[in-house]
Amino acid sequence: MIFEKIPTVPTAEELLDKSYSRATRAKRGKQILDRKSKLQAEESMLLTAAHILNDNCMHIVRKFPSFDMIPIFYTELAEVMVGIEEMKMNLASVQWAGDKVSSLARKYVGMMREADDAKIVRKEAFGRISSIIKSIDGNLHFLNDARNKLRKLPAIEVGPTIVVAGYPNVGKSSFVDLVSSANQEIASYPFTTKGIGVGHFTRNELRYQVIDTPGLLDRPLEERNEIELQAITALKYVGKVILFIIDPSETCGYSLEKQMNLLEGIKERFQVPALVVANKTDISVSDIGDMSMSTLTREGVDAVLDRLVEMMPIAEVQEIQETEVIE
Ligand SMILES: Nc1nc2c(ncn2[C@@H]2O[C@H](COP(=O)(O)OP(=O)(O)O)[C@@H](O)[C@H]2O)c(=O)[nH]1
Ligand SMILES: [Mg+2]
Hints:
The structure is a single chain. The radius of gyration is 28 Å and the shape is elongated. It is 54% helix and 12% strand. By secondary structure, it is an alpha/beta fold. It is built from 11 helices and 7 strands. The protein folds into 2 domains: 12-150, Four Helix Bundle (Hemerythrin (Met), subunit A) (Up-down Bundle), CATH 1.20.120.1190; 161-326, Rossmann fold (3-Layer(aba) Sandwich). The structure holds guanosine-5'-diphosphate and magnesium ion.
């Protein structure tokens, strides 16, 4: 997953400690016999510190993904969780500090050569450099928080995707588990306390992704807060087909009427093809919905998969086949 590889962002103090200890080591390696070697030792100390700091700042900036190049689903979620503009501004400050430290170091090296006491100049340079790095401490903290939030995002792939919706206990997780070739992966979802479930199955040599979204598509949309609504919007960019599971037995604890109302709300919001499937045929048979199944006995489940595959917009399927050819 694109955000998984962002390393921890150090604090200003950590950056300074690291660069100064390296600088001290650089100086220790030099033999100080005369004025010239003293100058060289101070120079090397300053340049080492500046180099380490610049390197570390650039490393931070480079390791954050460029938001112009990632799937729109993640852009939407990153926007909800951390704010992309804000993140860019914070990265720009880190970049600025890295550049500033380098140019200051060059300037002070020049001054050192003119000075009576190189050490005094070097100390002054360290003072300036420290305050530059300390001034981005807030930015570094922001970025580390952002990193911690982003890396928790579920690993959702590009490709034909089915989003499963329906009230709690209708059988969504049972369905995803049953049809998944491997057990579904549960990734924590930053907006809800529940984990988002991602499973996969293969049909006609094509890999389909099934996403179970507890806490998002299992309650009426009117009950949502702003962040949840945006997360639901983000789902629009991945889900090409919706599987809406209903439980006519009502053993899930929600009346059929409530369940149908949720379906209407989701249809309105998503505007992608939806397949409505009545589950739990083993305990209650009904003619509500497009199809029926039992995720307990597996009756009807394969037919549901066939239908979902048929409903997948052709563009989704082609796109994947093309990328496979390219690879
Ligand atoms: N009788 C029966 N029970 C089912 C069926 N599918 C799921 N259940 C049960 O319904 C409960 C909720 O299922 P779960 O998959 O966790 O629902 P979710 O909350 O929508 O993810 C569990 O106790 C399941 O064992 C089914 O086809 N028949
Ligand atoms: Mg569930």
